[in-house]
Fold:
Amino acid sequence: MINQTLILIKPDGLKKSLTGNILTRLSETKLDIVAAKIVQVSRELAKEHYAHMKEKPFFEELIKYIMGHYHKKKVMALVYWGEDAISKVREICGATNPEEADMVSIRGQYGRITTKGVYENVIHASTDAKEAEREIKLWFEPDELIVDIYPTKTAKRDKKVLVWA
Ligand code: IDP
Ligand code: MG
Structure:
């Protein structure tokens, strides 16, 4: 089934200069990249992204981690699209706990558990179609994607935007 998935190269992945390695590993899937950007993650975005984790004892540490408190204050966000994109990407990423992840998966190769107990696993990938839709809509505006994957509508936004001087 054709589907799409949100990928984040987390701040530790960027700090460790793993962007190239991770994208090379992901290219094994032969999926299409249909959106990509660098984002400075606000607390609001971090909390929204990890809303399902808010009862966890490590939630505050997780929010700090994705905001880049311990590394670089940025993540790379991408949308991959194609046949079984969600499951193919999750497979290459490996298990959540980097110590339990297959050694040749991205998380197995590059992840670690910090002394504060956070799984710094260098990459995020959506787990299922519902999560992918919620996450892609959270991280991207419709015109940042080069394919039409979800219905859109036109809306008037009365706000000032920055343009080149
Ligand atoms: P996933 O990223 O494999 O989908 P989730 O359960 O959605 O795993 O957790 C989100 C993120 O929270 C993980 O990628 C990891 O960084 C962190 N995390 C999850 N479970 C634990 C835990 O038990 N201890 C520490 N950090 C965790
Ligand atoms: Mg998850």
In short: DSSP finds seven helices and six strands in the chain. The first helix runs from residue 11 to 15. The pocket of magnesium ion (ligand 2) is lined by residues 127 (CB under 6 Å).
